[in-house]
Amino acid sequence: MSRLSPAARKALLTLHLVTSLGWLGADLVLLTLGIVGLRGADPAVVYPAAGLVVTYLFAPLSVVVWLVGVATALLTPWGLLRWRWVLVKLVLTTVMLGLVLLLLMPTVRGLGELGPAVTTRDRLDLVIPPMVSTSVLIVATVLSTYKPWGRRRVRAGGNRRPVAAGRP
Ligand code: HEM
């Protein structure tokens, strides 16, 4: 059962959309910087700029998206673990949050410090991860709109009973 009024639920959903699709937009900015860097743009411009985007936009948004996503699930009838599409989004977003904070942020900041010494191998570090994460976020968006696979239900006896996809 929803614990929010219809107006509050719409406001929360709006916040969820603005933050999660803003995250996708920030990811595309990183990918763009990565591609121009790979094509030979000045590393003294590209990688410090990418470092700023990761530090002040992408990484903070990753945390906000996770928190708002979890709140959106818990405070609406969807629930966090009830529907497969919500659960898969939770897993994807959690893995991505970990990779952004533990791998991408330190790597991109390190690229900014390398200056002209940056190699092609280094430049790929700002192409491949954003390509993967952009794909993951597009998958999350598609899952959100199509809501496939129905719901998970664990009965008292422990049996899972799949129910057709639809509204909760
Ligand atoms: C912790 C991760 C996330 C969870 C638990 C989550 C959960 C949810 C839930 C429960 C809804 C339905 C809200 C409602 O009907 O009021 C929703 C909607 C939506 N989510 Fe997420 N979300 C997460 C991450 C994401 C991400 C990363 C994206 C895209 C980049 C995304 C895109 C959307 C979209 C586009 C909708 C609107 C779907 C519609 O209204 O038909 N979500 N999300």
UniProtKB/TrEMBL annotation:
The UniProt transmembrane annotation reads 12-37, 49-74, 86-106, 126-146
**Protein's UniProt keywords contain Membrane:** yes
Phylogenetic placement of the source organism: Bacteria, Bacillati, Actinomycetota, Actinomycetes, Micromonosporales
The protein depicted here goes by the name DUF2269 domain-containing protein
Top-level taxon: Bacteria
Keyword terms, alphabetized: Membrane, Transmembrane, Transmembrane helix
